[in-house]
Structures are given as structure tokens and as C-alpha cells.
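note to self — DONT lose this again. spent like an hour looking for the file last time. sequence + predicted structure for the chain T wanted, 211 res
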Amino acid sequence: MKITKYRHACFVVEENNQSLVVDPGGWSTDFVVPQNVTVVVITHEHQDHLDTSHLTNIVAKNPDATIYAHADVVAQLSTFRTQAVKSGEEISVDRFTLEFFGGHHAVIAPDIPSIANLGVMVNDHLYYPGDSFVTPDKPVTVLALPVAAPWLKFSEVAHFVTTVRPQTVFPTHDAILSDEGQQLADRMVGGITQKVGARYERLRNGVVTEL
């Protein structure tokens, strides 16, 4: 599985010359539309995960691409080819098998309304929870791990890693951090992953990595 990580929470998965784009949001300013996109997954509606200009550019280059998201998100994307999915659902599209988990965004504050959020497992290999720490009910080889957000604290990150016990971890959702903050997150999360026997790797933005 080839993974290209972009700024903040966006990444691309490539399998056998087919590409899947996850959360092309407005903070992923370095995003480059790949070739052969058949699937786009949007975990939730927040602008740092969903930017319609990115979607427009994806579809312009890949007119057959379909966007998969919770029904609440799909309702906001009437000009695109979409398919609503829900927690517990598993679908296969070309080279990709997708399974969805959870259903709710992590709580930011008691007075901020909750929105839909779906974690996604790709090809029984890579798991990404979106803006949540919902755990899948199966082993995880590669974990895309949120490391900084208004809705999380480090103890929750640590608990999530020790619960999921992946083999490899790479950080996501960290545009909110300075360079020094990212380095601190790398040290702290790297220590937790080492304790569970996992490998922690910060993927260089825009560089294709095999995991």
C-alpha cells in the first residue's frame, strides 16, 4: 500500500494504480490531485477535512470518482457524485474495501453541537478514525493517528494507541501545531508506540511512502 501524506489530515492511498483520497480539507494547502482516483472518503463536514474546491479539482481530473461519506455530509454535496455510508457498513470499490466505524465527532465542548463522523478501515490494513477515537473491532496494521486538536488531550491519544495496538503509526491532524509542537508530539507519541511494539513514522508531506 502506497500512502502520500499531505498537510494536516489529508492523505492518498494507492493500490494497483488506483487512488483513494481521504479528507481533502482546506488546511491541506499542499494537496496535489492524483491520477486514477476512484474513491474519496470524507470523515466529517469540518472545513479542515472537506474543501469543495479540492473536490472540484479531483472530479475535474477524475470524472468517475465517487465521494463516500455520512448522509449528513452527502446532503451538502449535491453537485458531486456521492454515496452515503453508515457505521458498520462495508463496501468494495475497485481496488478498495472500506469499512466504517463510529458515527459521532469527539466532543469539543458541551455547548457545541455534535456532528457526524465516520472512522474508516481501508483494505483491512489502514485505519483512520477521523475526528474521534472510535476503535475498530479488528486488528490494525497502519494507524493514521490524530495528535493535536481542540477535542483531544494526550492521555486520550495514548489510550487509543494502547487499545488499538497497531504495527505502524503516522501522525495526522497536526496543522494546529508549530514546528516545536510537532516535534513534541513526535517524541511523546513515539514513546507510547514503542511501548506497544509499534513503529512511529512522521510521513513527509507529498512524498510517497509504502506501509
